[in-house]
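re: the backbone from monday

yeah here it is again, tokenized this time
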């Protein structure tokens, strides 16, 4: 790897990966391509390590001319594809952008890579890495074994269906055109720079201002929580050592129910940001969302055995670091909310459920 294109690099996981790779590789140059929609912001790319080795291109991954010019002008040899519409609630309210970005955008990147790399020496030394989700596998029952790389796909939402389709496209380009691809399917990420509509930052920020903490249904949905820096380290390892054409599951190795995650966040806030009464009293159960998957779990045996990766952060340490980060970045929260129409979206999604947003 010498010149890496990171799509969606101004978003949550993408910006953390940009920071990670700039810290890790003295000889690497990184180009971020991002459309700067509601979930992407240049605020996430401030104070980068080695900023002289980073370039930013604003644009849509569906813009084939822009993508091909970027690959050519920056001599890109590695693509790490994060760019996606990723929030299930938003996909229920409006599925169109998910099909466009996740399917058409991925196709545009694949086709551009195939043509530009094919015209400039072939695929040797090139890599297209596609970042996907555990949600493509559907929902698990209480006693079902964890998802493996060979688990059949069974998406349940417009979001997960669009990601499943993009995964299939990536594999098709490997088998049909020999494009050197790798894929990773990750579990629920959390950590710094996460857009505050997601569960953990939403709970932190609502609790700080004394607002209700909306929990869907009974709160007993199960997720496998992965600290974002662990995810970045795993992707970096896959880029360096992963076999072309292979898929690797990445998970955090823990499965608390959602209501327990909320209570843990409240307990940390009681210690770091006390407000007189326990934050847990703000928990408010709201009607569940349609098609809400009950349980996800990731079997990470393959990446452990083949590449030697395991998560370094425990749930307790990762949550504490995350809470501390949001408490210390009120200016980031303010800018993100103003840029994205965040407060309006909260009312649209939770107001009708009686969440009192």
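seq for it, each position gets an aa:
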């Amino acid at each position: 790897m010498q010149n890496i294109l990171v799509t969606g690099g101004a978003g949550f996981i993408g910006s953390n990966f940009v920071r990670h790779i700039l810290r890790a590789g003295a000889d690497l140059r990184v180009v971020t391509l991002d459309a700067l929609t509601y979930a992407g912001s240049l605020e996430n790319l401030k104070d980068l390590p080695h900023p002289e080795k980073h370039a930013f291109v604003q644009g849509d991954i569906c813009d084939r001319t822009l993508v091909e010019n970027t690959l050519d002008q920056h001599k890109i040899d590695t693509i790490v594809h994060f760019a996606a519409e990723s929030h299930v609630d938003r996909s229920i309210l409006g599925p169109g952008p998910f099909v466009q970005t996740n399917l058409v955008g991925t196709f545009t990147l694949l086709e551009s890579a195939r043509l530009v790399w094919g015209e400039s020496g072939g695929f040797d030394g090139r890599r297209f890495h596609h970042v996907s989700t555990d949600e493509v596998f559907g929902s698990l029952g209480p006693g079902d074994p964890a998802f493996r790389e060979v688990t059949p796909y069974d998406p349940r939402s417009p979001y997960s269906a669009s990601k499943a389709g993009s995964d299939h496209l990536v594999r098709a380009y490997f088998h049909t055109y020999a494009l050197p691809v790798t894929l990773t399917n990750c579990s629920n990420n959390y950590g710094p720079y996460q857009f505050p509509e997601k569960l953990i930052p939403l709970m932190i920020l609502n609790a700080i201002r004394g607002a209700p903490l909306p929990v869907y249904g009974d709160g007993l949905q199960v997720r496998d929580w992965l600290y974002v820096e662990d995810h970045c380290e795993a992707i970096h390892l896959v880029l360096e050592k992963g076999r072309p054409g292979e898929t690797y599951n990445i998970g955090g190795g823990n499965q608390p129910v959602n209501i327990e995650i909320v209570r843990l966040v409240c307990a940390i806030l009681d210690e770091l940001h006390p407000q007189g009464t326990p934050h847990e009293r703000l928990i408010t159960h709201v009607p569940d969302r349609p098609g809400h998957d009950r349980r996800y779990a990731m079997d990470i045996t393959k990446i452990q055995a083949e590449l030697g990766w395991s998560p370094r952060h425990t749930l307790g340490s990762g949550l504490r670091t995350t809470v501390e980060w949001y408490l210390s970045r009120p200016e980031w929260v303010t800018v993100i909310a103003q840029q994205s129409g965040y407060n309006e979206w909260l009312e649209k999604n939770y107001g009708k459920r009686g969440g009192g947003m």
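Residues 3-187+228-251+296-314 form a domain with the Rossmann fold fold (CATH 3.40.50.720). The mean pLDDT is 93.
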